[in-house]
Amino acid sequence: MAKEIKIRNLSPSIIEKLDNIAKKKGFKSRQDYLKNHLESLAISDELKDKDEQYKILFSKVLKVLEYNTIALNKFLEVNLLDIKEAINEEKEKEHMNE
Fold this sequence. Notes:
Layout: H1 12-24, H2 30-78, H3 83-97
Helix pairs in contact: 1-2
């Protein structure tokens, strides 16, 4: 069921500005413009929350990648492997297969 929101004590100049904006943006009425704007506002708050969660997750994944890189480099060092040499060998194999 749809509910109503009533905003009190808006100055006539603000109402006129809202009417002009609604008209410029092609809305049928001020009410349609404000409804659209409020719906967008509600969604943008949800998106901000998701964005913050994404940033936290990205930070954690980045930290794991850093630890994996350290572990891989240590493994290569202990086993006397040269990663650059291994990459070059793979590239040479690819060129030979072309």
